[in-house]
Design brief:
This protein is about 25% helix and about 40% strand.
Amino acid sequence: MLKRLTHVNQWVTDQDEALAFYTEKLGLELRMDSTVPEMGNFRWLSVGPSGQPDVAVTLLKVPGPPVFDPDTAAAVNDIVAKGAAGGLFFATDDIESTHEELKGKGVDIVQEPTQQPYGVDMAVRDPFGNQIRIAQIGAQ
């Protein structure tokens, strides 16, 4: 049956802006950037954490027809902008230095580092509204 998770999807409205944010601000590495002309110039763009080559985040533009009708595409874009389209969770060894680094890079921090039952975590938003959580698991 299923063996392992390889990709997760993050909806974005501008793939170039997404690539810059996820690589330059969050420090992920580019995994693949490929355009498929036979599929209406569909662009497969993926990034991932260095040291974890078997997992990638695909930064996909919300598609129109035939995948989504125009109303559905607009609704998905609206949900993404509200930060309600799911999210990514990353781990760090030092939440305070991660917080300071992201703050210094101008990342939108929507929750300061906060003690949780599982450790200390914080939340940021990408330029499209997607919420991203970062945790130092087990931290007190």
